[in-house]
Amino acid sequence: MICIKKSKKPKNRFVISVIIITLFSIVFSMAGFLKVNKDNLEKNNEMIINNIYGTGKDLSQTVQDVIDQVYYEIKLYSLADGLSDMDEKKIMKQMNFITASKQRYDNIVVLNKEKKIVYGYVDNPDVFSNSEAINNALNTCQFQVETIFNEGEYKVDMYNPIVDENKKISGVIFIRINIKELNDIMKRCRLDEYSEAYIVNEKGMFLTESKYIPGAIGKEKIDIDRVKLNIDYSRYTPYKDYRGQIVYGTYFPIDEELNWTLVVEVDKNMMEKLDENNSKKATVLATLQGIFLVIVQILLKRFLGVDINLKDITNSDGTMNYEKLTEYADKILENKIEEGNKDKSEDEDKNNDKKSKE
């Protein structure tokens, strides 16, 4: 009996096909990564600008929450026991406790309806008692607030009317707060080393510290109208900041009464450097992709006799077309499986013929 050794050709060809398809998968994965990287490079500026917008929005809400909390506190204190009937002992006890427990409070003063100071101290009591803010609080029974520059820093003065049980004005409570807390918030919420956030008043004067110019509070200012005009035109268009640097920015109004503005900016040059570094990485990866494609071409030609036309798996700009690549790989695999099955069938037919002849 003659023993016919089964051909290993189909198995070998199938194994080679699987290996080559695996290489295709590697190329496909690299191509997918390159496409994502390319898209990220193209949209990088937009993403960063949207990021500073989102950060600025959250930051503005944080600042507004702090201001609203202070507003709430002064209105709550004006309802404290002893204030409506101007009981000096009760007022002293309560105000001393409040002053000691709140670091943001620089001064608290309580006046009766005759503008006499019942609690607290000011340098010029007559000028203070007859100030426009005190008169407005007494005459209109409305909360008053203003930003003032005092002792080298900006502070907020608040005046709230005190009303008795008959809803008649019995006096005014005055609280001066420092805004050092806002500086800490600005520092914590900076995006990175290339960006900064700061608050200015209606004239553009710095209320919080500048990242780049020490001692800017009360000394440095920006052209707030020009900044708003540039950003309103398009926040994707760069402009010159107070240092003369080209930046992208966004702004948010802070409190209608105070009329402050929060500005968040990022340097355009730094963004371009980041883009350049990412572009170099993409170039290296694209080169590796090209090398892999050449290797795949050689392997397909050498072992399977298949010629790849790169136009069949790439776009007009030379980038990988993933749908075409997948279809191409599937087609090769199907063809090789069919060839393997065909070879197997032919071998079986030959064996059957041999057996029949025997």
Question: Overview of this structure, please?
Answer:
By secondary structure, this protein is of the alpha+beta class. Among the domains are: 78-178, Beta-Lactamase; 182-270, PAS domain (Beta-Lactamase, 2-Layer Sandwich), CATH 3.30.450. 53% of the residues lie in helices and 18% in strands. It contains 8 helices and 9 strands. It has helices spanning 9-77, 88-101, 125-129, 132-140, 180-188, 224-233, 268-304, 322-357; strands spanning 105-112, 117-119, 144-150, 153-163, 169-178, 195-200, 239-240, 246-254, 260-267. The strands form 2 sheets. The chain has a 5-stranded antiparallel sheet, sandwiched between helices. A hairpin with a 4-residue loop joins strand 1 and strand 2 (117-119). 24% of the residues are buried. Residues 1-10 have low confidence and may be disordered.
Q: What distance separates the N and C termini?
A: 8 Å
* CATH third-level topology of the domain at 78-178: Beta-Lactamase
Estimate the helix proportion, in percent.
40-55%
Give the rounded overall mean pLDDT: 79
Rg, Cα atoms, Å: 38 Å
- What fraction of residues sit in β-strands? 15-25%
Order of helices and strands: HHEEHHEEEHEHEEEHH
Largest sheet: 5 strands, antiparallel
Q: Which parts are unreliable, with pLDDT below 50 for 5 consecutive residues or more? A: 1-10
Give the class-level CATH name of the domain at 78-178.
Alpha Beta
The H-level CATH homologous superfamily of the domain at 78-178, spelled out, is PAS domain
Q: Specify the number of helices.
A: 8
Number of strands: 9
InterPro entries: dCache_1, Sensor-like_sf
Protein name: Cache domain-containing protein
Organism: Clostridium senegalense
Transmembrane segments: 12-34
